[in-house]
Amino acid sequence: xxxxxxxxxxxxxxxxxxxxxxxxxxxxxxxxxxxxxxxxxxxxxxxxxxxxxxxxxxxxxxxxxxxxxxxxxxxxxxxxxxxxxxxxxxxxxxxxxxxxxxxxxxxxxxxxxxxxxxxxxxxxxxxxxxxxxxxxxxxxxxxxxxxxxxxxxxxxxxxxxxxxxxxxxxxxxxxxxxxxxxxxxxxxxxxxxxxxxxxxxxxxxxxxxxxxxxxxxxxxxxxxxxxxxxxxxxxxxxxxxxxxxxxxxxxxxxxxxxxxxxxxxxxxxxxxxxxxxxxxxxxxxxxxxxxxxxxxxxxxxxxxxxxxxxxxxxxxxxxxxxxxxxxxxxxxxxxxxxxxxxxxxxxxxxxxxxxxxxxxxxxxx
Length: 365
Prior knowledge:
By secondary structure, the chain is of the alpha/beta class. It contains twelve helices and 14 strands. The chain has helices at residues 15-18, 32-44, 59-72, 95-101, 103-110, 124-141, 153-164, 242-246, 266-278, 327-332, 341-346, 356-364, and strands spanning 3-10, 52-56, 76-79, 146-151, 181-187, 190-195, 216-225, 231-236, 252-254, 257-259, 289-299, 302-314, 333-339, 351-352. It is globular.
């Protein structure tokens, strides 16, 4: 009899976790706490032996797996099959937004109806079949070994059900914690639970904003699309966090826009920022709000509670002509470019906001 031991860990925290936003298969990065959690997990597992390290190919999982693999000189074996459940059209929206827009079908999500899927998404049954298949393949190809698998809350939930024999609709005994080791075993085609982490007694991993009342930074931003579905992004320098500077980044691309001035509405700020940054003058309705964000934002070495609204602005393709920028703003505004969704998805040049490629595709369709 050959026994395979699998250590399962969920990725570290993201801003979308804080916002209670459906991440699904969108590629969302770790936030500051999540990066600290990844390092803490590597420390907790420092004495554990692993023969292989597997991970979901999404960056929040890969970044959690990386320090553990690097300490052992192992390659991270990435696969799409370990991705979170595909929540289709719900991805990118908060639970509150989904509950308001899909009130009737949201109840099927809450009751874990195995045959329910969000529009364009996976059912729980389909997701379970995918997770069971990939974990069985990992166990068989790693027969007799001890391996680490870094994935997502939904993947670990299915793994727990495999190891305990619980059905898809049964209540799980303990939550799936970020960046915490859980252990299952596979032997002669049978799964068993070795140990599942509980929150009690575990140290809290601090974030820079813990215990602070962060000043609000309200901002209006524009998702400007041309008839080809390309988005206008501005190239900026300045305001980069120490984390990104340490990674060697010296600029980033983002949608035009900026912070509200005192007494200014979001719509007024949007018009002012577009005129200043691109020369575009909006007549009438600025367009619908297509995304909202509220999360801790690092500005230089300071933290703010960012509250952002993204407006959809459809226009003909044009060449920006910034107006009335201060000397400091001119130094920080390095240029501009029209981007396709595929180009955004393939770039590593700090393109904001998160999941921008998916938002562009949705708005251009």
